[in-house]
Amino acid sequence: MIRCEIRGENIEVTDAIRSHIEEKVGKLERYFNDVPNTHAHVNIKTYNNSQGKVEITIPMKGLTLRAEERHDDLYAAVDLIVDKLERQIRKHKTKINRKFREKDPETELELFRAVENDNGDSPEQSDDGIEIVRTKEFTLKPMDSEEAVLQMNMLGHDFFVFNDRETEGTSIVYRRRDGKYAVIETN
């Protein structure tokens, strides 16, 4: 059973909201063989313009599912997020099954159950594969995060990879949806 840990910011999590989230997230269990200690971390935020944002993160062994949605109706946002998570699961399942078939055609993936769509097709048949169309190589220069943001803006990109001068590790700066910048640091 997937247990939901629900946290609300600027909103009281009512029993109705809680039961709707638990019901919808619980439907994801059908994709997995064994989910004994799986937790879904659900954050609900509301803003002054009455729009809400729902984020659901489900960390699992070898896979982290995450989706977020902004909507005026929190119930609709939860429905949209569960649809996104189902698509993520199907894509991941397709990718893994393809790798297993290439290595050993007899191997079955034990993490996922075979789930049939209403039309009888298995879900992995409906998703397109991921195709890498270009590969770039470049040398990472040591710099600080502010210089990396300037480089990113100069190139017109939404992210930039660099060697962090302070941590001596590889880091990534990126532009967030709200127009601000963030840094991802690696270990």
TrEMBL record:
InterPro entries: HPF/YfiA_ribosome-assoc, HPF_long/plastid, RHF-like, RHF/RaiA, Ribosom_S30AE_C, Ribosom_S30AE_C_sf. One of its GO terms (biological process) is negative regulation of translational elongation. Keywords: Cytoplasm, Translation regulation. Transmembrane segments: none annotated. Belongs to the HPF/YfiA ribosome-associated protein family. Long HPF subfamily. Required for dimerization of active 70S ribosomes into 100S ribosomes in stationary phase; 100S ribosomes are translationally inactive and sometimes present during exponential growth. This is Ribosome hibernation promoting factor. It comes from Lacicoccus alkaliphilus DSM 16010.
